[in-house]
Amino acid sequence: MAAESVLNDLPIMENGTASGMGAFEEGWRYMTANYSRFQIATYMSACLHICTYFIFCTPAFIFQFFRFMDRYKIQQDKPATWDQEWKCFKLVIANQVLIQTPFFSGAYFYCQYMNVPFDYESMPVWYMTLAQCFGSLVLEDAWHYFLHRSLHHRSIYKYIHKIHHNFQAPFGMVAEYAHPLETMILGMGFMWGILLFCNHLIFLWCWMCIRLIETIDVHSGYDFPINPLHLIPFYGGAKFHDFHHMNFNGNYSSTFTWWDKIFGTDIQYKEYYSKLEEKNSGKKVN
Ligand SMILES: [Zn+2]
Ligand SMILES: [Zn+2]
């Protein structure tokens, strides 16, 4: 009611927005006033997905041209080649057009069926959305651990998951370099958060962006000492998932470290890094 009465006092512009709003509110109101729910849920979600993906892949892509960034590269002996990056780019684009965009038109029908609001007035408070995104990460991580581990079973590994392991030293774009079936199987983990928490379009978009940023970060191939994602408790990060690509076994979780700890699938990872530390401290003493 309060928001409505404030809005009523503001002069309404031709495009349906009112002067005196913040840029975000103005943009959001412009979008809902000028585009249909189908256009917003399908095309804008797909655009947001593609833009977020490539924007967050860019820093690690640029770092490869600066030698002083090599100290943060996890597998320094395996730099990405142009051929690898081009090959990855082609499959990622195909995946985004053929799987992700139809997925978002499915998201539209879901939003219609569940009456998910798109309007500015119904937008939940930011901390609620953030908490729901954290809950979604926890659910996705559990799904990912068990399904990803199953995809490593020797009877099916070569048919589906082997494609994602094409790159022993990953780089950002590898995050979505996968067999279409894998994109669907592991992508189901993304759906749990939507099924349980989706109370507004803003949640869908925030959850999608957070999950993308997280998976690009863990595939970036770079481990930075200053990374805000490491403020998330039990966050595995690039070093954790990079080891999975290097070793093929262990570290099956996507985001957190607890499932691997509980099932002992992080033992090789811990041994590897404790040996590396011993070796490095021995070098320093000598
Ligand atoms: Zn794997
Ligand atoms: Zn991976």
TL;DR of this structure?
This protein is mainly α and 286 residues long. The protein has helices at residues 2-9, 23-34, 37-63, 82-113, 126-151, 180-197, 201-219, 237-247, 258-262, 267-285. The model is unreliable at 1-8 (pLDDT under 50).
Give a verbal description of the structure.
With about 290 residues, this protein is an all-alpha fold. The protein has one domain (about 35-275). The chain contains 10 helices and no strands. The chain starts with a helix and ends with a helix. The model is unreliable at about 1-10 (pLDDT under 50). Bound molecules: zinc ion (ZN) (2 copies).
**Could you give a short account of the major beta sheet?**
none
Task: Let me know the number of strands.
Answer: 0
**How much of the polypeptide forms β-strand, as a percent range?**
under 5%
Radius of gyration, in Å, reads: 21 Å
Q: Into how many domains do the coordinates divide?
A: 1
Low-confidence stretches: 1-8
Number of helical stretches of at least 4 residues: 10
The CA-CA distance between the termini, in Å, is 72 Å
List each distinct ligand once.
zinc ion
In N-to-C order, the SSE pattern is: HHHHHHHHHH
Question: Helix- and strand-based class?
Answer: mainly alpha
| Helix percentage | 55-70%
Task: Give the SSE layout.
Blueprint lengths: L1 H8 L13 H12 L2 H27 L18 H32 L12 H26 L28 H18 L3 H19 L17 H11 L10 H5 L4 H19 L1
Bound molecules: zinc ion (ZN) (2 copies).
One zinc ion binds next to loops.
Note the main attributes of this structure:
mainly alpha, 286 residues, globular, 10 helices
